[in-house]
Amino acid sequence: MSEAVETPARKEVRETLIVSRRVREFPDDAHTFERATSDGAYEIWKEVLRRADVQWIHDEVKASGLRGRGGANFPTAIKWESLPDNGLPRHLVINGDEGEPSTFKDRLLIEGDPHALIEGVCIEAYRIGSHRAFIYLRGEFALGADRIEQAVHDARAAGYVGSNILGSGFDVEIVVHRGAGAYICGEESALIESLEGKRGMPRIKPPLPIHVGLYSEPTVVNNVETVCTIPHILKMGGAQYANLGVNRSTGTRLAAISGHVNNPGVYELEFGMTLRDIIFGIAGGIRGDKQLKFFLPGGASFQWLIASDEHLDQVYDIDDISAKLGTTLGSGAIMVYDEDTDPLLVAWRLAKFYAHESCGKCTPCREGSGWLEKVLYRMSHGQGRPNDMDALLDISAGISPDVMKAPFTQTTICPLGPSPVSAIASLQKYFRAEVEAACAAGVPA
Amino acid sequence: MTTTEPQSTKTTVSVTIDGNTVEAIPGEMLIKVAQENGVYIPRFCWHERMKPVGMCRMCLVEVDGIRGLPPACTMPVAEGMVCHTETPAVKQAQDDILEFLLVNHPLDCPVCDRGGECPLQDTTLAFGPGESRFVEEKRHFEKPIPISNVVLLDRERCIQCARCTRFADEIAGDPLISFVDRGGHTQVLNHPNHPFASYFSGNVVQICPVGALTAKPYRFRARPWDLATVETSCTQCSVQCRGALQSSSNRLVRLLGIDSNAVNHGWLCDKGRYGFEYVHSDDRIREPLLNGAIASWPQALDAAADALRSARDLHGAESIGFIGGARGTNEDAYAWSRLAKGVLGTDNVDAQLGDGLPAELILGVERASIAECDSAAAIVLLAPDLKEALPVLHLRLRRAALDLRVPLIDFSCAPHGLSSEVTHALAAAPGEQGARAEQLVAAVNGASSDGVIAAAAATMKARAGTIVVVLGRANLAERSDATVQAVAALAQLPNVKFLSALRRGNVHGALEAGLAPGILPGRVTIEYRDAVAAKWSAIPEAPGLDTEAMLRAALEGKIKALVLIGADPIADFPDRALAEAAVRAVPTVIAIDGFHNESTQRAKVVLPATMFGEKSGTITNLEGRIQRVNQKVSPDGLAMDDWRIASELAFRLGHDFDLETVDEVTNELVSVAPALAGGSAQLFRSARDGVRIPVAQHHAEVQLRKGLGLTLDGPDGVSWEPIKVEAEITVESVPENGNTQDAFALLRWDGGSVRVDLPGRDAYALRLIGSVSLYDHGSAVSESPSLVGLRTVPKLLVAAADLQRLGVPNGTEVHVASANGAFNIVVQAIKGLQPGVAQLAAGSGNAANALIDAAAVVNDVRVETIR
């Protein structure tokens, strides 16, 4: 890790391994207690207990500028500061319900470095004064669940988790909970409903979970990568961490790159690289010597970009990209499509996912996502009608009234509703002519 | 009249809605504030009596300073909020949401029961697009599937507003239906093999904003525009929920709940909702019968009058008894009371059938209102299972306990509908309620105590407000003595009031009208005879007999003529052996009823009476609230109103009541009844939520309906919402102190001095609890096709420990025997029942009546395996 700290390689096209260093260095056994502890796991946790200084944790994390890695980019320390002091028990919930198409970066940590997660959980629980932390895992993560449970077991046996940890008087229990296969449970309030044993549906906000969360008590919900980063920040110092990255996008972030690239995978990138560097440098360019047609810089839920210089020269910076290009870095997934790709087919496949995963609570999402999917199916399977694209935009406007703008508004409770609309807006922006041609001519189904 | 949960602060905030600034209670939802100020924001999922869920997104509005379009149903108002409900963006959103809702809606309005009164139809017309652009295949489900014996579900029509699922979960506490699947396939379903068997299932049909939920009794019976409607009150139990009674072609077809904040919050139980069916049963008595043969009214009335006259002349007035009258109107009860006491001179009159509490206690304790439970310091349950006895009161108390955090202190030793909400369970065994209450009161007064008594006393002292004791006959297999003793103790508590839980429809009105021994109309004893003296020619000198005493007198041959006013003592009196022998021993039985029963079989004269929906008048509920009931259909056959029958009999006995209309009866009752001083037929007709008695004491809460008659056009403009009155005026004409009556004449119960000496219990005996059940053997259930199938076979409920101790396998048929009788019955272990007791449905024709000796302080039974 030390070499990464010493030379922040801004704009240099290479990875900066902090959060993923252990799993990348020891891909075969980083998940084991022996390997993890011999590699320094729980050292920071011990240091935290030795110092017994909550403010130190807080100050370092605040200085690091760490922002939530689940997609909302909310500053972690500010979230802690919002915790009400009302005498109620506080809960820590780790959102490991990573289920969006093309997003698989948390999986690397869950399966590969569970002890880093547990160490982060312990430290954060200590910071917020929570004695019960819940790790909510996507139901399909069978291997991840096994490894996390084994890791919790080993950590408890070693006295790092449980009651009176290492004689400090501090208690924290970790509960591993597996979801039942619903994407919506990645939304924090639906996740809390699911944890409470209810049907996973988002809650009305306000109140936010930080005020009224799990069991109506103050609850911090954090993404896996965010929590895993905390021990590293304490180890290297918040200011050091903040030296990495660019502007308010400090540090590194795991990017899951998939699609028509030569080297798909999870990469740990320092903020500040260009998208061209990422796609053509880190991920090795488009496979088969094809041309890049378009790409999704922030996962399945946000607007697309195309192979223009303006888009490719955009810096990987949370705030800059949304200010300039109206899209976001989302969940850290980058999906790349080559010249042979039918954008309609991509839009349909994404809409199908959102129609399938709509929880059914809000009318616009429940009915609108299915409607979009049906129209897109027709359009992408040779049964398009001339005014289908306008119909799509109209339907989309019912879910997200400012459909062509970003950040969008929405008529639904949670952002799942507008998610398929991003694809429609992207079709309109970049592929209107191609779509109209397809609908006019008809394509063999 | 409005319910507001956040009552913490009285200060209001200024909110501007479409340019008009109004004052509102902070924390109220914008949708409700707008509605109360004349701005209707369309909605489907929001319901005034349930927590907001924000699902349908129909109520999106613009609020200055908030990005996007927040839903008005989840937006609490705050000072300075500026809201717009008619901007282009809002209109566009309303268009969009409705188009989305119709995407998968089958649009089968022409064959849908909801057509014509459908919120989706109405809202689409008022706020929606004229046409749909949806050309894809709609979602398909199997057309209506039964989710219970009464309710059917058409999932294609459902718009997933979660009103039904929230009602079942939050209000009824029967979370038997819920969403399954997701996205466009989201559907409401009951759990496999678990029907939506809720006592309150009909409410989900009423609040469904589309035709997804329908109920068998109304399916395909009528179109809404063909219905004629009157506002009335349900008379199945003494809660007397407000309702809109609807008929088509002179047949009752539907009863809808009306939202009365004082009483029912718009809910009805299924027995109330569907029990009207018995009015049109083929088994109705349609003609007068004399000695079992059809007779003319003059023949039958003459025979009845002759029997009464000869009994009085030959054996004295005390040889005549009147039992019943708790099913009719106040006017009926008054006419019977005047006939019995004021004409014949007998005081052997009792509206209760040995299954209630002494009239002087019910009339003489300080009465709480239902609404007072919402803000009570504590609610003490000294009552039967309210879910079975008074279902909608159960809902109110459940809400008070769960949502308003009012502590419940429970005397019951058996599990009941509110068991899981009970804060302190005192678990008094049969006969021990009095002793337990005395311990509790002593603890409240500072005596040292421990355990649950100490905890309950601490709870009662910890909160300000009234202590409401819900007071009823929890056990039909014991005398009322222990309950009376408990009331005497509890009456010593500071700030205590009592809410009667006597069950029979208008029992409180009947008692108030004088249908009880020693009682005259208006909550006075027979010593206060001045009020009635002007109208009545004879007034009994001494208190007469109650039902049990009448039955014993009949056994001794002292009752020569017995008038049964809609009463069946053989089935309903808890001691069947006594009642059966007594009725047989009476030479002349005169029955006034709608249906034949075991007692009418013994009657020389049977007179057909009008029933619910066939007559008008007033009724009085368990909190002493007088409300109007209204006629909707013409009486079946030759049935006549009770008060007319009584007048006709009086006329034949030489007394002209000179009463021509029901309003005249009401006014005469008011004129002779001190507790009703200040009332009038006109007032009762126009008071929106009824009038509590003593009228003079509660005049401040009387609100008049502006203009008479019923309108189904609520502020929503859609008929399925609770009927509301937009403008009210407060009564000013009600005098503080009654007319010329001495307000202090009103009966005050002195507490009595009943002590209960419990007999010892042998190790093999179980002390019996005779419980009530909603779906009983009464004619409302037996003669209503929708309800009769819901009746379950009673089982003997015993604690598992007792079954083990007695060596009886759970679920087997056993021999149960008391000193009075014996039979075989299936035994079932039940959680929460105190060891040493056994529970069995009693009263209302139940087999348990054969076990009960009415004279015994408590009844013990022995359970034996059958060899």
Can you tag this structure with a few keywords?
heterodimer, A: 445 residues, alpha/beta, Rossmann fold, Ubiquitin-like (UB roll), de novo design (two linked rop proteins), 3 domains, five-stranded mixed beta sheet, four-stranded parallel beta sheet, 11 strands, 12% strand, disordered N terminus, B: 867 residues, Dimethylsulfoxide Reductase, domain 2, seven-stranded mixed beta sheet, six-stranded mixed barrel, 25 helices, 37 strands
Q: Could you describe the 3D structure shown?
A:
The complex is a heterodimer of chains A (445) and B (867). Chain A is an alpha/beta fold. Chain A has 3 domains: 16-243, NADH-ubiquinone oxidoreductase 51kDa subunit (Rossmann fold); 245-338, Ubiquitin-like (UB roll) (Roll), CATH 3.10.20; 343-441, de novo design (two linked rop proteins), CATH 1.20.1440.230. Chain A has helices at 2-6, 21-25, 33-38, 43-51, 54-64, 76-81, 105-112, 114-128, 142-157, 188-195, 224-236, 238-243, 275-282, 309-312, 318-325, 343-357, 363-380, 388-399, 419-430, 432-441; strands at 91-96, 132-137, 173-178, 219-223, 245-246, 249-250, 252-259, 265-270, 292-296, 305-306, 333-338. With 867 residues, chain B is α/β, with parallel strands linked by helices. Chain B has 4 domains: 13-86, Ubiquitin-like (UB roll); 289-356 and 507-745, Rossmann fold (3-Layer(aba) Sandwich), CATH 3.40.50; 361-500, Dimethylsulfoxide Reductase, domain 2 (3-Layer(aba) Sandwich); 765-865, Beta Barrel (Barwin-like endoglucanases), CATH 2.40.40. Chain B contains 25 helices and 37 strands. In chain B, helix 2 (88-103) packs antiparallel against helix 3 (119-127), helix 12 packs across helix 13 and helix 12 packs parallel to helix 14 (481-490). Chain B is globular. Chain A binds chain B through residues 182, 184, 199, 204, 355-364, 366-371, 374-375, 378, 391, 394, 397-398, 401, 409-413, and chain B through 52-58, 60, 67-69, 74, 89, 92-93, 96-97, 99-101, 103-104, 133-134, 136-137, 139, 159-160, 178-179, 181-186.
